[in-house]
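Box 3.1 A note on notation
Throughout this textbook, protein chains are presented in two layers. The first layer is the amino acid sequence; the second is a token string describing backbone geometry. Keep the layers aligned when reading.
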Amino acid sequence: MPNPALTPQNQPDKMWFVYLVRAANGSLYCGISDNPHRRFEKHQSGKGARFFSSSPAVALVYIEACCDKGEALRQERLIKKLRKSAKESLVASFIHQTDAPPSV
């Protein structure tokens, strides 16, 4: 008999993320993924998005966690509407895991 605690209805939704990738020409690409680091590797390999055919992906510069895919899509739309200066502010405010101060 299956464990009711492990049924699909009781499992939390998969986390989704909205992310920004910097291209070699300085432009920013916004997308969503359930694994932004793996998706960035796809972008770097040239298989992620046509956007990077003219200027390769060089850095994953912003990641924002969302509770589900719908929220990630909504946040992606909002970010895509921002001016480049506002997107750059998001990038500047993003703390990379390796840059974060040690927790006490």
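The domain at 16-93 is CATH 3.40.1440.10 (GIY-YIG endonuclease). The chain has three helices and three strands.
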